[in-house]
Each structure stands twice: as C-alpha cells, then as structure tokens.
Amino acid sequence: MTAARDRGQAKHQPEAQADAARDIESARRVLTLESEGIAALSASLGDSFVAALDILAAVRGRVIVTGMGKSGHVGRKIAATMASTGTPAQYVHPGEASHGDLGMITEAEVVLALSNSGETQELRDLLEYTRRFSIPLIAITGRAGSTLDEMADVTLLLPPTPEACPMGLAPTTSTTASLALGDALAVALLERKGFSPQDFRVFHPGGKLGNSLLRVSDLMHSGDDLPLCGTDLTMADAILVMTAKSFGCVGVVDAAGMLVGAVTDGDLRRHMDPALLAMRAGEVMTGNPKHIRPQALAVEAVALMNQYTITGLFVVEDGRPVGILHIHDCLRAGIV
C-alpha cells in the first residue's frame, strides 16, 4: 500500500512542478506589466502634473477624492495618504454624493476624480456639481477626450498600457498606475510644504511608526530628576546623588555648568578602594561622556547606546546637560 502511494506521488510530482512554474510565470507577467505601466507613467509626467500640484497646494479646504469600484478603492488610499502627509483629504463615494453627500464638498475644496474610462456614470452628478460651483476638478483617467477629461480643469492622463489580466478586463495595470500617481502627488505636495518628521508624527501618534518618530526630548528626564554634581563634590556625596536619582550614574559639571564627565557604576568598580569616598568626582569621572541632542530621534539614542554598550545618555544642549535618557525609557515607549 505504501509503495503504491509513493508511486502515485512520484507520478504527480512533475505535474505539480509544472503547475508551480505556470503560477510563478503568471505572477511575473503581472508584475512586469504593472512595472512597465508605472515606468511609462513616469516618462509621461509633464506640465499637467505641475498644474495639478499647483491646484492641490493652493487648496483652502480639503482634497475630495472620488471614484467608483476599483478606482474608489484606490481613491480611498490616495485620500488617506494625503491626509497623513499634511494635505487634508477625504474620500466621497460618488453614489452617496448623489444622495446628499455633495454637501460635504464646498467651494473651498478641490475634487480629484478617478475613472480609467472617463465615462463612469455614477460620477456625473458630482462632476456637474463641480462645474456649477466652480470647484477645481483634477482628473486621473486613461482616455483622452472622455467626459471626465473634457470636464476637468487638469487631466493626468494614464499612458495606454495593457491590463495584466489575460482577458484585458480586470483593472490591474491601470489601478496600479493610478495608485502610484496618487502617491507621487502626495509626496510632491509633502516636499513642497516642507513636511517634517515631527509633522508626520502629529498624524501618526500610534503604533511602531509613531514610536519611531519620538524625539529624545519626549522621553528624557529633566529638572530635579537630573543626576548632577560638581567636580569638587566628594564621592561620598556623589554616590548619594546616584542612589537618589536611580540612573546608575551622575553627570559631572564644571563651574560654568558644562558637562565635563560622568561617574558610572563601572567607574566606582574601577576605583574601588578605602579612599574612594574621600575622592572628588572630578578624579573618578570618565571625561567627555557620550551624549545626545534633545531634538534627536529616540531611535538615534537607542542606536548610540547599543553601539557603546551603555544604558544611559545625557542630553546636552550648548554644552549643558538638560536631561538624561535611559534605555528603559525607550523600551517602555516601544523603541528597540
């Protein structure tokens, strides 16, 4: 019985391998066609893209993105990307727009409409509304001379490239190109506006992405929590400061308040001697300790601590310590 089953498996193995090869070839054909579509789109960019960008950058209200079917799904993603990168945006379903949601669109808005054919019936009421109230209309379509193209103030025309579907029917290459074009608009707007990582964090406070954009100043301990002592303080008193502040170290400052060194647990072990308590902090400290700017990203601080196998960093501004950051602060914030 076992031998028969083995012979059956051997018989079908070449067929399975042939099926797998066809699957891989099918996937590669799709990816090749879609990548070629994006390359053609990139080569076609010109004055109309800049004109669309000018309109979007000047909007007083929001960018209203709309589309039906697969174009609607792409439109939702474009609206979300714009909103998260400093361009207020909202998706409006064209069918719902005809039943009251046109009230969401004011004369302060810009409409970005997606339709590969340019003849999507469900878009008609919304498009006519933009013409009636002189609301700027930007089109993303694959057909020059279509209704959408004729009605738009600016048309971003998708180049004629075949769909990846073997029947040429399912939106594949066209939706990928539309999505990529939406990303291009969002990122170009971001760069025009000088959108910074700190601005990005305002819109992404949650999750791994938000955590990665935390600044050192967001996590550091400052004020009375900062473990500091002068160079002439006895080690007996310096150890009391270390114990009270619970960071395992104390920063040593000169008469001008500049950070000149740090005394760590390692320094205590290296100077373990009956005379240690009578020594001065300036005699025991390690000079020029590793430190970081308050404006630095917290991930930079973690990288520095990992590089030098240390658990804490003094935060320094203009040579003066303004805070201290411990590796545990970063771990609690989800930064690793």
Q: Mean pLDDT across all residues, rounded?
A: 91
Just give the CATH class of the largest domain.
Alpha Beta
Total separate domains:
2
CATH architecture descriptor name of the largest domain: 3-Layer(aba) Sandwich
Q: In sequence order, what are the helices and strands, one letter per element?
A: HHEHEHEHEHEHHHHEHEEHHEEHEEH
Radius of gyration: 31 Å
CATH topology of the largest domain: Rossmann fold
Shape: elongated
Low-pLDDT segments, ≥5 res: none
Strand order, main sheet: write it out.
Answer: 2-1-3-4-5
N-C termini distance: 55 Å
What can you tell me about this protein's structure?
The chain is of the alpha/beta class and 336 residues long. The protein has 2 domains: 11-195, Rossmann fold (3-Layer(aba) Sandwich); 216-332, CBS-domain (Roll). The chain is built from 15 helices and 12 strands. The chain has a 5-stranded parallel β-sheet, with helices on both faces. Helix 3 packs parallel to helix 7.
Give a short summary of the structure:
The chain has 15 helices and twelve strands. By secondary structure, the chain is an alpha/beta fold.
Summarize the topology:
Elements: H1 2-44, H2 47-57, E1 63-67, H3 70-84, E2 89-91, H4 94-97, E3 110-114, H5 124-132, E4 137-141, H6 147-151, E5 154-157, H7 173-193, H8 197-203, H9 207-212, H10 216-219, E6 228-230, H11 235-245, E7 249-253, E8 259-264, H12 265-270, H13 281-284, E9 286-287, E10 291-292, H14 298-308, E11 312-317, E12 320-326, H15 327-332
Parallel strand pairs: 1-2, 1-3, 3-4, 4-5, 6-7, 10-11
Antiparallel strand pairs: 7-8, 8-9, 11-12
